[in-house]
Amino acid sequence: MxxxxxxxxxxxxxLMADISAFTQTPGASTPPGGNPIPLFTTFVNASAxxxxxxxxxxxxxxxxxxxxxxxxxxxxxxxxxxxxxxxxGTSALHLALEVAGVGPGDEVILSPQTFxxxxxTVVQVGAKPVFADIQYGNGNIDPADIEHRITPRTKAIMxxxxxxxxxxxxxxxxxxxxxxxVVIEDAAHSPGATYQGQPxxxxxxxxxxxxxxxxxxxTGDGGALCxxxxxxxxxxxxxxWFGIDRANSPVNELxxxxxxxVDVGYKYHLSDYAAALGLANLDGFAERMVQRRARVQQYLxxxxxxxxxxxxxxxxxxxSAHWLxxxxxxNRLEFIRAIRGKGVAVSVVHDGIDHxxxxxxxxxxLTNQRRFDATQIHIPLHDDLSAEQAAYVVDVIKQGW
Length: 401
Ligand SMILES: *Cc1c(COP(=O)(O)O)cnc(C)c1O
Fold this sequence. Notes:
It comes from Hymenobacter glaciei. By secondary structure, the protein is α/β, with parallel strands linked by helices. Helices cover 34% and strands 13% of the residues. It contains twelve helices and 13 strands. Pyridoxal-5'-phosphate binds at residues 88-90, 114-115, 117-118, 160, 186, 188-189, 210, 212, 221, 223.
């Protein structure tokens, strides 16, 4: 551009303004636009206003045709198998455990690198969470640490895809097959992720998604449960609504549905007004994922070789959904203070959950989990993160801590 001065005038000024926005002044300590950069934002598509309003006007608020439409789009666009839309990701985990027949006396093996909802639902069904160690390089359960934790009471393995990066599903499935265990994926962070070309939501017995406010795809609160086995999927649909098979219980002459309740059901269905928000947010989902990946690449390129940072590993046989961007950092407390002081949110997001009284009340001897607890950190990644903001984040990290 500088070599073509005859272009000067309005175009020239616009181009220069664009470039200066992308190239932060080295040493800058105020985020572009002056506002702090949050770790997460809640994404609401502009079309949601109209879509949700239409539901309110119709007064048909509860589960109806929009929930069905949302489910068919989850299946068509994200590759989820038999998705049942529910009112939360926690409900999805709980219902998966129930339908899988996990109950009192059973054990479920999972990693502590997760939100408490994963292990809490295990306790809710009367079973015991048994913690296995993680891989220090990515925060996911270490298949090599699962097998020796298996006892005659083990019923299931719960695989949490930390930050959206898929677990070693082949190894986990092989262990499950060998020992006759059920596999449940906590995929709260990983809609749109793939493992060896297969979408998350199509691989194991049960996959649980969350549509909570700060997750990739929000319905305000909500979730989805995918059961691969069609009979189990039918059970999911029945038991998400009290245990009544809505589709096959016609209203009789007396005005009551014809059904016989045979097992415990829940009030876990999604509502149409929430599905309307989910449908609006599904529009452009793929494009937002492309943008998210571009920010991730920007971080990886910008932070390559920075002393004191060790990046998480990323195998090429799987594609993360990139809910989080994390790495290991030396002198973490100094890092947190320095980066936060320059208007950039940073967080561990979650510490290993095994220390909670409900789950045992102590930090267990899990070598990699304890190392992970001591060094992991996450920096902003969300749909509203601009290239300028990401450049600023890179710049302040490179200024040191
Ligand atoms: C968000 C989350 C959940 C719970 O989802 P809700 O929709 O809030 O119930 C479960 N597991 C993990 C790992 C999560 O991050």
